[in-house]
Amino acid sequence: QVQLVESGGGLVQAGTSLTISCALSGRTFTNFAMGWFRQAAGEEREFVAAISWGASTTYYADSLKGRFIVTRDNTRNTVALHMYSLKPEDTAVYYCAADEYYIGKNASRYDYWGQGTQVAVSS
């Protein structure tokens, strides 16, 4: 059974950086493409970034390119989201997702999800 556990969220000031991580267990990590999504209060879940099985390809929401970077460590079974120059509008619960066959922006295509980690950015 695949389990995803996010960590690293918290309260930060605008303009600072934060890295959140997600660990996958239960199956071979390199079998999965990984995605990050976020959901602000009262809003729909939105795509943030995704990274391919071997980390050769990454995708980003257009609005976040240049501020967010997704990486994965296939030796530690983890994927990370490095967030820079954070803004109050980045405040959301951040979720990691995994799928064996799909990589992209469509949340409904990912089979496995973590519980989320809260990121709050104060102005």
Describe the structure.
The chain is an all-beta fold. Helices cover 0% and strands 50% of the residues. The protein has no helices and eleven strands. The chain has strands at residues 3-7, 10-13, 18-25, 33-39, 46-51, 58-60, 68-73, 78-83, 92-99, 112-113, 117-122. Strands 2, 4, 5, 6, 9, 10 and 11 form a seven-stranded mixed β-sheet that branches. It has a four-stranded antiparallel β-sheet with strand order 1-3-8-7, with no helix packed on it. The radius of gyration is 13 Å and the shape is globular. The N and C termini lie far apart (40 Å). 31% of the residues are buried. The model has no long low-confidence stretch (mean pLDDT 97).
What is the gist of this entry?
A hairpin with a 4-residue loop joins strand 7 and strand 8 (78-83). The protein is mainly β and 123 residues long.
What share of the residues lie within helices?
A: under 10%
End-to-end span in angstroms?
40 Å
* SS strand fraction: over 45%
H-E string? EEEEEEEEEEE
Let me know the number of strands: 11
Number of helices: 0
Shape: globular
- Mean pLDDT over the full residue set: 97
Largest sheet composition: 7 strands, mixed
